[in-house]
Amino acid sequence: MSIDLFVGDLQKVNNDVLFQAITEFAATQPAEGWRHDYTEAWDDSALKCIGAFANTFGGLLIVGVKKQKQDPVCEFTGVNSPGEYKTRIASSIAANIAPTPSYEIFELSKPGFPNLKFCIVRVRGRSSLHLVTKKGLQPAYVRNEDEARPADAAQLRRLVDREKEMPESAQRLGERACQLRDALLINRGYQDKDSSEWFRSPRQPSASFLKMQLIPTERLSFEMDRVHEQQFKNLLMPVYPRVAECVSRGVAQQAESRDADYYEYAWYHKKLDYEGRWRITSTGEYAYATQMEYSEGSGSKAWSVVDLAIQSILFLRGATRWWETISFFGDGRLYAQLNLDGLQLLQSPISGNYPHAVNLAYKAEVDQNVLKLARDTIVRSVAPKSSASADVGLNYFSGSSDLATVAASLLNKLLRSLGHAVVVKRLEEITKSLSVSLA
Question: What is this structure's pTM?
């Protein structure tokens, strides 16, 4: 589907295209979920749904669609209304939910039937506790998979605590990211690289590295156990297929470490002297670190901007899948630190394009033309800096369905932090191509 109903600018989409978008959305996602639901008309159940979305992770309610649990597909019945239907919805939300949640309503009609109306109600999750004030309904609702349910005592306490703690936790996001970043140490030159205890052998810190952390804005807490560890490894390997493949061929080593509040997986390619580390925590954080140095055939050492793009895309893909595993669909902030230790930017001396070096999602069928960045995408600084940092905000859905845009935004900030100028449109094109090719 070309239009993202969760994050797209639907005001700029004409009626017929928007109708096609909701039919395609319902065809691909006919069953309601954590962040989307259907209702045949606006009623009390729709009001509960909006309250639940506002108290949980936000979401989409498409009005005018008939869908019962036992129905295999959605039926686009529409609502017969000669006037504007979204006014009724807006009035109901304002009168019956306090405080009023952050939301948008987009109205459309079935092509050829102007009185047959549909509405997309897009709700943004916030830290406030939103109460339904209409008589006969419970005051607080939360989203639980495909349902809006009255909040029990524990859930209500969590909502109240979240409302109190969010301002403080927002200020501490950077601190949490720094703590997680400093805990991931990237090394090279392991002396006993063929031993099963390779990770304990003498080594030296890597002077170049990339470290990324995704921190949920809401402070989560769950008891880490072996089930979480196995779930994490099961999602990690499909995202980084070269990791498992190299271990199976004996050219790479792996290790793991754990504590009460984290699990870490380490991977080391013996021939490339290349290490990567992934960590998850019991507070919902996801982190990754690797080195950036690449030795060319001539012996000179460089770093690849395409590798940086690939790493950003793979990180976002793994992080959002982890959040999905622990049923978190809220907001977060992505932090990245890049240290290059004076490395040169890898560039073809013939074409001037920027190639890739180490691709952990390597697939033989990937078009090699995708794994490069056109020379005119970057206006290089004559005296670039050796380190950069950047951060961007996102939520589960922007990080998954709009992954390429988030990755391009992060890359743009990192490259500009190094001193380079960037053609953002071209950068977005390469991240979109890479995200498709590496899926």
Answer: 0.78
